[in-house]
């Protein structure tokens, strides 16, 4: 038996079909754009981009043809709140890089430097149809966790965009709440933005030592300036209705573009969230009261928020930053559909909505001319839990449906007679 080495594993997992001209024919295409659902449609891909979509599109002479045979086709899916590439085994601290315990680093902590492109979890989630993800730093002290990064799950450098948001947490699980009251965390956040605004107006004097001190280091204040200027959103994990209302008020007062994560009780103030034009990232299957912050959690949360006009995105676990099963975001969205959310709204929440919120809206999230060719061909309805991807393309390259799990399966499957052979050199 050949030696099974880590090198061979890495080479196998990183191999992809080289980008070429691809023609997908006879597909039921969810464009997630102005064209809506296109039956019997074709997609022409050239140079990693979608160049044509429609029933009358023809293949190039050198196109590799994939016959969808009437199957559903969607953009590659996106999880808007993950720890992909920064968490391997949560119980082993040395493999967890999603947060910093150094109190000198808060809002300006950049998680992108810790992302491991060779994590086996990348391949596993990719073969399940996930092609993009937001890597969200966890909050370990204070109220700010750091800055988020968008990755693609392809074969090259994974980091797509850095510094796409600043992350914070409120509620009973916020570190700031441990100082006596959940109001402490909100006061810390308000003071931070007041100081950042003052810092912007007096930066030169502060750096000369001729201005008052601030609670946060200047690097954190610098990280908050793009939030105050509206260039990037503030992403706040929060569940209780009263805390949601408080952060909505804070965002309005400072002119901040806000994104909510969790929002288990969001349906109680759906109109207020809609009126504030706040994207809400939900984990639709989290419907039981895990704490006093989520007493009014319901499986109908997504449907009620959508009915009020709230734009949605999805995660597979709002409490933590999921990594192992980030692809289950699709199952959660399907569950929301079972409880009243329209299917098109669910698919938009898996693609276009998070793309627009985190700076990718002009090149990813739709099957449209000029967009990156992130495409999945499904065995059935993409929101049905028993469906699976038959083909996954990222930026025009077809990805192998291979992971560490499938390699181990095939290795043992092909040597069933003698278990001792597993360890033979």
TrEMBL record:
Q: Name one GO molecular function term.
A: hydrolase activity, acting on carbon-nitrogen (but not peptide) bonds
**Keywords, in A-Z order:** Hydrolase, Signal
Q: Which domain of life is it from?
A: Bacteria
The record's section on InterPro entries has: Amidohydro-rel, Metal-dep_hydrolase_composite, Metal_Hydrolase, Metallo-dep_Hydrolase
Which residues constitute the signal peptide according to the record? 1-19
Keyword Hydrolase among record annotations = yes
- Would you tell me the protein name for this molecule? Imidazolonepropionase-like amidohydrolase
Q: Which residues form a coiled coil?
A: none
Q: Which positions fall inside the Amidohydrolase-related domain? A: 295-397
């Amino acid at each position: 038996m050949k030696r099974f080495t880590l090198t061979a594993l890495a080479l196998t997992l990183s191999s992809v079909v080289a980008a070429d001209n691809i023609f997908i024919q006879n597909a039921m295409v969810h464009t997630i754009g102005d064209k809506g659902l296109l039956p019997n449609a074709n997609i022409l891909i050239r140079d990693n981009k979608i160049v044509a979509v429609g029933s009358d599109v023809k293949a190039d002479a050198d196109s590799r043809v994939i016959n969808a045979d009437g199957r559903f086709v969607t953009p590659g899916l996106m999880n808007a709140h993950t720890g992909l590439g920064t968490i391997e085994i949560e119980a082993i601290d040395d493999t967890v890089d999603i947060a910093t315990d150094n109190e000198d680093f808060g809002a300006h902590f950049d998680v992108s430097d810790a992302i491991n492109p060779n994590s086996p979890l990348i391949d596993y989630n990719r073969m399940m149809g996930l092609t993009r993800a937001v890597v969200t730093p966890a909050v370990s002290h204070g109220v700010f966790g750091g800055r988020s990064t968008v990755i693609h799950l392809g074969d090259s450098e994974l980091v797509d965009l850095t510094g796409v948001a600043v992350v914070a947490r409120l509620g009973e699980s916020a570190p700031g709440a441990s100082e006596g009251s959940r109001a402490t965390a909100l006061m810390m956040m308000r003071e931070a933005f007041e100081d950042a605004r003052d810092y912007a107006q007096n930066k030169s004097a502060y750096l000369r030592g001729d201005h008052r001190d601030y609670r946060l280091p200047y690097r954190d204040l610098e990280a908050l300036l793009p939030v105050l200027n509206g260039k990037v959103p503030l992403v706040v994990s929060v569940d209780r209705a009263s805390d949601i209302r408080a952060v909505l008020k804070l965002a309005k007062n400072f002119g901040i573009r806000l994104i909510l994560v969790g929002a288990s009780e969001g349906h109680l103030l759906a109109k207020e969230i809609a009126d504030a034009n706040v994207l809400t990232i939900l984990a639709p299957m989290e419907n039981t009261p895990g704490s006093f912050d989520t007493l009014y959690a319901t499986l109908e949360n997504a449907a009620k928020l959508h009915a009020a006009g709230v734009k949605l995105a999805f995660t597979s676990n709002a409490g933590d930053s999921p990594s192992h099963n980030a692809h289950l975001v699709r199952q959660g969205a399907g569950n929301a559909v079972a409880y009243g959310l329209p299917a098109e709204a669910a698919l938009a929440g898996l693609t276009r909505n998070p793309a627009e919120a985190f700076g990718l809206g002009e090149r990813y999230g739709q099957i449209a001319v000029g967009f990156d060719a992130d495409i999945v061909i499904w065995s059935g309805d993409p929101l049905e839990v028993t469906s699976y991807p038959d083909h996954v393309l990222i930026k025009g390259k077809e990805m192998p449906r291979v992971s560490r799990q499938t390699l181990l399966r095939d290795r043992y499957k092909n040597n069933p007679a003698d278990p001792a052979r597993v360890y033979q050199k």
